[in-house]
Amino acid sequence: MQNSWEIETKTIQCGWEPKNGEPRVLPIYQSTTYKYDNVNEVAMLFDLEASGHMYSRISNPTCEALEAKIAALEGGVGALVTSSGQNASTIAIANICSSGDHFIAIGAIYGGTVSLFTNTLKKMGIEVSLVDASLSKEELKRYFKPNTKALFGETIANPKLDVLDFEKFGALAREMGVPFIVDNTFATPYLCRPLEHGANIVIHSATKYLDGHAISVGGVIVDGGNFDWSNGKFPEFTEPDKSYHGIVYTEKFGNMAYIIKARVQWIRDIGSYLTPMNAFLTNVGMETLHVRMDRHCENAYNLAQFLSAHPNVAWVNYPALSTHKDYNLMLKYLKGASGVLSFGVKGGRAEGEKVMNALKLAAIVVHVADVRTGVLHPASMTHRQLSEEEQRQAGVTPDLIRVSVGIEHIDDIIADFNHALNSI
Ligand SMILES: *Cc1c(COP(=O)(O)O)cnc(C)c1O
């Protein structure tokens, strides 16, 4: 029954499934510890011979319900919630690549991810090549080496707002025998389900639209269960793991090998699981995901139209505008273009800062994707730590103002921007 439900029903009903007499609403299982009837039960858990909770560093019933909900929405075989989106990206890659390995990522992605890939993973001996997404499939193939283990992109790039060409990158990953990892943070499973378009692994910063209220930092990794880890490139999946008495992940867990390995190796050892309290908050937020996303899309479209017509605005970037370079990709893969747009003020950075300072309803925040409208200047905020070249690759120009359009009344949002733009 659940598989046939519409996504609006799944956001509300999937995950927590109370049995007779149990709480209707997902409880916060604020317990580090679980109780067993005998020693053998625990031994079975430690040997991965039985499934169940052992310790809340590795799994927890509240987190498990959230994982089940997100896996159902994305159409995956399983999910793992993490302490942040950054941690989800880290584990998504580290679960595949070891020291000496290489992977490929589209250059125009979230600044924090670029920094993680080019600095911190590099220290662990993992090399990344950042590529221009507009290259042809044949040109992109030249970046692949024998030790290339993954391909990474974002559905809607933050903050450049390029829309991912799933067909091209999905085919590239398939032909090169590597998993295609997609950060679906800006789209959410309501607007796009990457696993239906060739992705193998989906990640999210749950801090953004899944929570949607700016109250909880979290991340999630979803396993599509649709990648063949036994193609010869991934010995960690097909050779015995000595930290579990020599189990072989592909043999023991089949199409759930990736997500189980991520939990029982990485989360066990690194200890970056989501807390039950934050899982509860994210779950409450997600119950209105579909309603919020419709309004975010509608408001962002209307604000984009208004800004496009304003005499003090130099340019507007929003994929649902028919003039956007990725408009056709947006129509092909997305139900809506989400709630983030960017624009430049005539006169450049200095005039843009004046507009930001004159806004009253729209607050200056280092965040996107919550119910309140907010603005940000990436060059001096989120992308500050990147070099000029990396900023350029990420699509961050000095005059770019990013707006996260909230779900207030559109007339009030437009009035705020109108007043601020007219004040310069
Ligand atoms: C915010 C963000 C992240 C990082 O997530 P955190 O929860 O802040 O760690 C990763 N990817 C994208 C697209 C983001 O917007």
Descriptive keywords:
424 residues; alpha/beta; Aspartate Aminotransferase, domain 2; Aspartate Aminotransferase, domain 1; 2 domains; five-stranded mixed beta sheet; 17 helices; 12 strands; 13% strand; binds pyridoxal-5'-phosphate
Provide an overview of this structure.
The protein is of the alpha/beta class. It is 38% helix and 13% strand. The protein has a 7-stranded mixed β-sheet, sandwiched between helices. Helix 3 packs parallel to helix 12 (276-286), helix 13 packs parallel to helix 17 and helix 15 packs across helix 17. The radius of gyration is 22 Å and the shape is globular. The protein binds pyridoxal-5'-phosphate. Pyridoxal-5'-phosphate is lined by residues 84-86, 110, 112-113, 154, 158, 183, 185-186, 205, 207-208, 217, 219. Pyridoxal-5'-phosphate (PLP) binds at residues 84-86, 110, 112-113, 154, 158, 183, 185-186, 205, 207-208, 217, 219. Its EC number is 2.5.1.49. Belongs to the trans-sulfuration enzymes family. It is an enzyme of class 2 (transferase). This is O-acetylhomoserine sulfhydrylase.
